Amino acid sequence: MGAGDALGGAIARRFAREGLIAVPSRRKIMPLGELVAEIEDNGCLAEGIPCDARDEEAVINLFDKVENEIGPLEAFVFNTGAQHSDSILDMTAKIYRQVWESAAFAGFLTGREAARRMVDRGRGTIIFTGATASVRGGAGFASFAGAKHALRALAQSMARELCPRGIHVGHIIVDGMIDSDAVRNKFPDRTAALPAGGMLNPDHIADSYWGMHAQPRDAWTFEMDLRPSVEQW
């Protein structure tokens, strides 16, 4: 969920290379077609399904379609983008709610539906994409940090409940600008100020996601912190 041109797409490609059928999803259908074609050109299997992760009925239909028409759900990754920066003095209630819906509420809806499909089989992996905002609020990022804190708490609660039932729930903290055209267009000044090689390679991050699925851990030890140095914060 949240299969864009950077990390989401890289995760879909990585899991497909391991023999799984990738089901990338996002609201817009056109980029999904391009991603699916790329995966299939590499000899792997994929089927793109558009979905608004904030819409409960649409989410339920998505997971039903996967189970009924594609195969049993082995792994689910929640990776929707919701980054927003604005002064708390100027932030509107509408924007705050939209960021929360995209990064936290949508995580609940999709995570719940994934768990419901996995629990009877007693296996599966659910991974949520976090950020430094998951553990530290920054000036101008009240909406994003609030939503990411909520998503991390959801992952913690799900891990403690579901791990004893065979479902591994993970949370990956990603710090930094991920190398993509979308990030460069949204934050031109920040990306321009980075040194050469200062942006994160989405394919390298995707390897960590696959490792989390291939080598699951127990309960809430199932978090991976990709920040360069926790002490610096």
Characterization of this structure:
The protein is an alpha/beta fold and 233 residues long. It has one domain (7-232): 3-Layer(aba) Sandwich (Rossmann fold). It is 48% helix and 10% strand. The chain has eight helices and four strands. The protein has helices at residues 7-17, 29-41, 56-70, 93-118, 142-162, 181-186, 188-193, 202-214; strands at 75-78, 124-131, 167-174, 223-225. The protein has a four-stranded parallel β-sheet, with helices on both faces. The longest helix has 26 residues, at 93-118. Mean pLDDT is 87; it is low at 229-233.
Features of the shown structure:
disordered C terminus; 10% strand; alpha/beta; 233 residues; 48% helix; 4-stranded parallel β-sheet; Rossmann fold
Short description:
48% of the residues lie in helices and 10% in strands. With 233 residues, it is α/β, with parallel strands linked by helices. Helix 5 (142-162) links the parallel strand 2 and strand 3 (167-174).
